[in-house]
Design goal:
Layout lengths: L1 E13 L3 H11 L5 E5 L10 H8 L6 E3 L6 E3 L20 H5 L6 H10 L3 E2 L7 H12 L5 E2 L1 E2 L25 H10 L3 E4 L2 E8 L2 E9 L2 E12 L2 H11 L7 E3 L3 E8 L13 E5 L4 E5 L4 H8 L14 E8 L4 E4 L5 E2 L4 H20 L3 E10 L23 E3 L14 H18 L1
Parallel strand pairs: 1-2, 1-11, 2-8, 4-19, 11-20
Antiparallel strand pairs: 3-4, 5-7, 6-14, 9-10, 10-11, 12-17, 13-16, 13-19, 14-15, 15-16, 17-18
The protein binds flavin-adenine dinucleotide.
The site of flavin-adenine dinucleotide (FAD) has 41 residues, from helix 1, strand 2, strand 9, helix 7 and helix 10.
């Protein structure tokens, strides 16, 4: 066991996704001595299928299967977490929900909107498929709007299909940007470091144990922030004796709907350029253009072999629902959750509307792909395991990531997590 007690930190942050990166960036600016431990690698983002598969497609690590329906859940395991592979859509936080738990992040969101790119998709970057879908939806009376993107659109390439592989041009903003700012301010970042448990003296957290290169290490700090994501954080907390973590969570199941037109010739597009939030029914409908290998992964197992070479002429709509809380994270970070009948009906309803939009756009051969999930959260909830400052029942131990969201919500959470990170950093500053 490697124990370096000579190097004690002010704060250890576990995980480098949006929640952890935001805490790190805010605190590193105040000169705090910070260590960030990240289980994944820090290789430069190349925009390759291979890199995406290594960081978000390893079964049992970043590609997790639920026990019943073999529904797959994706998470990014590398510096920046899932934000490296996300669709970069910024939704405002659920202010009303957070208010009811005594949490106001309006000021933090206002600042973030000045600090990182967040604007609706510009006209010239709307892909041909996204434009065709939007025109059809508007024509049918849907309130289909351009969405805010975490994208520096000056750097964005037209006809590019690399968004989902990780943007190699620095156009897509990811949590890695905040991590890099923090390391420039002096933060230590250790990659390939899997935190296995929190260390306590009595009821006070004093450090963490992590595994790197087949050996265990212990490091110590005055404050520990666990930001290992909706699956990683409850796994660590449970291994550390906080057994209530990891129950009754959401993971926002989603299904892709495909339809072929004759003359699209789409080479690649910004994902989720525009869409419609059906607040009454609880789902989101958006355009989402997959590159060929991901299109194959969705269409070929559904026996749409004759569609194998139709990607460029395929319109794609994603339906993402707000699912009911349920299920559990297993002792080893597995996911156990099935989709309720009510949630299946939401997906069916979304399919009916997506089909209508696609048909109105002239598409034929409409079919749906696999149902997958991508936003695990609510596994270490505020008002259940955390107070409104994101503190656990243990002294000096905090959680800041998607696991803290207290209720099912159903919308992309990154802006909310960044804001919660800023707010937590400010709270911690007052205590240090
Ligand atoms: C394909 C896809 C598309 C998405 N699109 C959008 C979108 O358009 N807009 C949006 O707002 N959100 C989107 N999301 C969701 C968003 O990316 C996540 O909600 C967000 O990244 C969660 O942030 P987090 O801080 O909870 O942690 P994560 O991003 O999950 O990061 C946690 C980090 O902790 C690390 N870790 C885990 N366990 C350990 C451990 N034991 N020790 C050390 N490190 C550990 C992981 O490797 C990871 O880097 C998308 C997600 C996916 C997968």
């Amino acid at each position: 066991m490697g124990t370096d007690s000579s190097k004690k930190y002010d704060v250890i942050i576990v995980g480098s996704g949006p929640g952890g990166a935001s805490v790190a960036r805010e605190l590193s600016r105040t000169g705090k001595k910070i260590l960030m431990l990240e289980m994944g690698d820090n290789a430069p983002i190349k925009g390759s299928l291979f890199q995406m598969a290594m960081n978000a497609g390893i079964p049992g690590q970043s590609l997790l299967f639920t026990d019943k329906s073999l529904l797959a859940m994706v998470r990014g395991v590398c510096t920046g977490g899932s934000s490296v592979f996300y669709c970069a859509t910024a939704f405002d936080p659920p202010y009303g929900m957070l208010d009811s738990y005594g949490i106001d992040v309006r000021e933090e969101v206002k600042e973030l909107k000045q600090e990182i790119p967040m604007e609706p998709t510009r006209d010239h970057l709307m892909g041909v498929g996204a434009t065709r879908i939007m025109e059809s939806a508007l024509n049918l009376g849907y309130d289909w709007k351009k969405l805010n993107k975490f994208i520096d659109q000056d750097k964005c390439k037209i006809d590019c299909d690399k968004c989902s592989y990780g943007c190699p041009y620095g156009a897509k903003w990811t949590a890695r940007n905040f991590v890099e700012e923090s390391t420039k301010e002096g933060m230590d970042l250790v990659n390939g470091a899997k935190v296995t448990r929190i260390l306590f003296e009595g009821d006070t957290a004093v450090g963490v144990r992590y595994r790197k290169n087949f050996s265990d290490h212990e490091v110590f700090a005055d404050t520990i922030v666990v930001s290992a994501g909706g699956v990683g954080s409850p796994e660590i907390l449970r291994q550390s004796g906080l057994y209530q973590a990891g129950y009754d969570f959401f993971f926002d199941p989603l299904t892709m709907i495909f339809g072929t037109v004759d003359d699209l010739k789409s080479k690649g597009e910004i994902q989720m350029s525009a869409g419609f939030h059906n607040t009454e029914k609880g789902y989101l409908m958006v355009d989402l253009n997959f590159p060929t290998p991901m299109y194959w992964a969705q269409s070929l197992p559904k026996l749409r072999l004759h569609k194998a070479f139709s990607r460029d002429n395929t319109l794609m709509i994603m339906i993402k629902i707000k699912d009911a809380l349920g299920g559990r994270i297993t002792w080893n970070g597995g996911v156990r959750k099935s989709i309720s009948d009510a949630d299946k009906n939401k997906l069916k309803d979304g399919y009916t509307h997506a089909k209508r939009i696609l048909q109105n756009a002239g598409a034929t051969g409409i079919f749906s792909g696999w149902t997958v999930a991508a936003h695990p959260g609510g596994t270490v909830k505020i008002n259940d395991m955390l107070d409104s400052n994101l503190k656990t029942q243990k002294e000096n131990l905090y959680v800041c990531d998607c696991s803290v969201i207290p209720e099912a919500w159903g919308l992309p959470p990154t802006l909310t997590l960044l804001a919660l990170g800023k707010r937590l950093a400010r709270h911690l500053e007052t205590r240090m």
